[in-house]
Amino acid sequence: MPRTWFITGTSSGFGRHLTEQLLARGDRVAATARRPETLEDLAVRHGERLWRARLDVTDTAALREVVDRAFTQLGRIDVVVSNAGYGLFGAPEELSDEQLDRQIATNLTASIQLARAATPHLRRQGGGRYIQIASVGGQIAFPAMSLYHATKWGIEGFWESSAAELAPFGIGVTIVEPGMARTDFGGGNAVLGEALPEYADGPSGQLRRVFAGELPPLPAPGDPAKIAAAIIASADQAKAPLRLTLGSDAYLLATAALRQRLEALEAGRALAYSTDATDATAS
Length: 283
Fold this sequence. Notes:
The protein has 283 residues and is α/β, with parallel strands linked by helices.
């Protein structure tokens, strides 16, 4: 049975792939983007099954208006996909206040505000599904990406908490954690802070040389079309998987990071227990 999807950031990357595949299989898509004209070819091909709206997700008032309008005009939306986002690179002191604020506003605050705007509609219609396009960067951390990781770790915590709150309403949540994929994430959509000479020989400087073509590009094994297909398939499952780790690099990196954290946690077990009050009963 065809479904209706609401997706942010559909002009390129995963958002574009999701939109193309969903329309091709007969679903209806409410596609939002800062440049919705980039979807004109899909509008010509699929007609009324593609609903478009211009949206900068950092404009909370506009986001709420677009969400309300989409639910009103389309009647029901089955899946809400928070996809808009980008990468910000550089050591913290290389970043401007404006860059910091916009990274958090786009990657973190906008996703939370989308949930706040859509949840009342999903509750009233008796359920639905949220899909958050996050990153394996919500499980691991690399130098020169601290602000990006802050947003991805933050959205992981938000959705893990919210998933339990939304379950009684029949609303499922899936956090998608792709690795490096062959999109524009590390290319045209990347934003760099101001280069400081003190960081030239460190990870920040090396990353700049990668983007400048002076060093080999970052490996990107992920196929965005296959990732989009896996995301769509997850929405067809009766029970939403809380996390969807996609890409061999994502799997290997997350596995190593979780094992290291667990080993460190277990090594500190005696210290953790030693700080309990004398009358506390540990399980």
